[in-house]
Specification:
Order of helices and strands of chain A: EHEHEHHEHEEEEEEEEEEH
Oligomer: heterodimer
Helix content of chain B: 25-40%
Radius of gyration of chain B: 17 Å
CATH topology of chain A: Rossmann fold
Number of strands of chain B: 12
CATH architecture of chain A: 3-Layer(aba) Sandwich
Largest interface: A-B, 39 and 37 residues
Number of domains of chain A: 1
Number of helices of chain B: 10
Radius of gyration of chain A: 15 Å
Strand content of chain A: 25-35%
Shape of chain B: globular
Helix content of chain A: 10-25%
Distance between the termini of chain B: 16 Å
Largest sheet of chain B: 8 strands, parallel, barrel
Structural class of chain A: alpha/beta
CATH class of chain A: Alpha Beta
CATH superfamily of chain B: Aldolase class I
């Protein structure tokens, strides 16, 4: 069972539907018991960092998520929560990955939010990106970004370069929404299920 | 920069697409999901559903069709029409829409924009602006669903555009009423002026007729996306053809 952690945002329909189309069963998880039953865990991507972290802490999930051994995928905000600190609400993250999340700044033709389909620049190999061509586009919608680092699997440029896909061990993150990224996004979720 | 976005807009009434792809000479009605998937397969980057059953009578949006669409569609979509409160927006987003678009309700109560942005994040709050030139100024119109209700809002377009951004709108759709339905091209002058002060994604609406209109609005007005309805519904231009031409015009397009 894929456990989708309740981070308090609206709109998880598309995420559940994406897994369903791949023939996988996903359930909302809001307790330690639910987390323990999950063979894969997804941190979904809608909402604000401060509120999401408070919710995880209240449910006693923050430390448990950081200690998970099963594959974990953070999507959009969910990826940002994996880092130590976020400029959004000046909140602490789960500290699974080193580094902080900063605000994207609108300047000239660079609009914020970064909204739309962008191509990635591949930096290193990851099972998450297996079979995905560099010509593929993914759907982004966000105002905060994680810097490129050693953990960056692929980066994207909107004004400047930042992390689009990250991985450390069993923790994966995508700044874009694979559940809204057409066939390429579906392939990425399929890859996650195969890890 | 992200790829330019091509966004078909479908009018929905009582769970059916009206003014959709012409199926027969008399009725232009189709199943929402069929049309949504047809456009997705054709290369649409995003879809907008404008629920025309909702707004005029003050009803809220029916969400069962939104849920059906959200389960099958793997590209983003936005729902417009009849969203007058945070609660109505929540039901639409929970049903699976990626964004909600508000127009007249934002003019009636501008705080609604801030409330929605705080509750759901700017990324899913789109403000639609119906704008028309009068005596050398661009003016915002409201209740534009029917000729009988349409009237001036008393606001200037560029001022309203600045205000909606400061209140937390994450995207603006600027519908230029004078070019709407003419198929003579987007209002490049107005959209270029809007672009200068719009720091969130700007979507052009009104006037698309030929692929050259799209090329012009992207390369001259520098909008992020272009919305169109009849040109796609009546299949005078397919999205694949359009995108091919845009690629040949050196625009970044998702193929």
């Amino acid at each position: 069972m894929i456990g989708v952690v309740d981070t308090g945002g609206a709109n998880l329909t598309s995420l559940f539907a994406a897994f369903e189309r791949l023939g996988a069963r996903a359930e909302m998880v809001d307790s330690a018991a639910g987390l323990a039953r999950s063979s894969r865990v997804v941190l979904p991507g809608v909402g604000a960092a401060g509120e999401a972290m408070r919710r995880l802490q209240r449910a006693g999930l923050a430390n448990l998520i950081a200690g998970l051994r099963v594959p974990v995928l953070g999507i959009c905000l969910g990826m940002q929560l994996l880092f130590e600190q976020s400029a959004e609400d000046d909140s602490h993250g789960l500290s699974v990955l080193p580094g902080r999340v900063d605000a994207l700044v609108a300047r000239g033709p660079v609009t914020v939010p970064h909204m739309g389909w962008s191509r990635l620049k591949r930096r290193r190999a990851s099972p998450l990106m297996k079979g995905i061509d560099t010509s593929e586009y993914f759907y982004f919608v966000h105002s905060f970004v994680a810097e490129d680092s050693d953990l960056t699997v692929a980066s994207v440029t909107h004004g400047r370069s930042f992390s689009a896909v990250v991985q450390r061990d069993n923790f994966f993150g995508t700044q874009f929404h694979p559940e809204r990224s057409g066939r390429a996004g579906s392939r990425l979720l399929e890859n996650f299920l195969a890890i | 920069m992200p790829a330019v976005r091509i966004i078909p807009c479908l009018d929905v009434r009582d769970g059916l697409v009206v003014k959709g792809v012409r199926f027969t000479a008399h009725r232009e009605v189709g199943d929402i999901l069929d049309l949504a998937l047809r456009y997705r397969d054709g290369g649409a980057d995003e879809l907008v559903f404008y629920d025309i059953s909702a707004s005029p009578e003050g009803r809220s949006v029916d969400t069962t069709w939104i849920y059906r669409v959200a389960r099958e569609l793997d590209i983003p979509f936005c729902v417009a029409g009849g969203i007058t409160s945070v609660a109505a927006a929540e039901s639409v987003l929970n049903a699976g829409a990626d964004k909600i678009s508000i127009n007249t309700p934002a003019l009636s109560r501008p705080e609604l924009i801030s409330e929605l942005a705080r509750r759901f994040g700017s990324q899913c709050v789109v403000v639609g602006i119906d704008s028309c030139e009068r005596d050398g100024d661009y003016c915002v119109y409201r209740d534009t669903g029917t000729d009988q209700t349409r009237r001036e809002s008393g606001r200037l377009t560029l001022e309203w555009l600045a205000e909606v951004q400061s209140r937390g709108a994450g995207e603006v759709v600027l519908n230029c009423m004078q070019s709407d339905g003419t198929r003579s091209g987007y209002d490049l002058r107005q959209l270029s002026e809007a672009r200068r002060i719009c720091h969130v994604p700007l979507i052009a609406s009104g006037g698309a007729g030929r692929w050259e209109d799209f090329a012009a609005v992207f390369s001259i007005a520098r909008v992020d996306g272009a919305l169109a309805a009849s040109v796609f519904h009546e299949q005078t231009l397919t999205i694949a053809e359009l995108k091919g031409q845009l690629v040949a015009s050196s625009l970044e397009v998702r193929i």
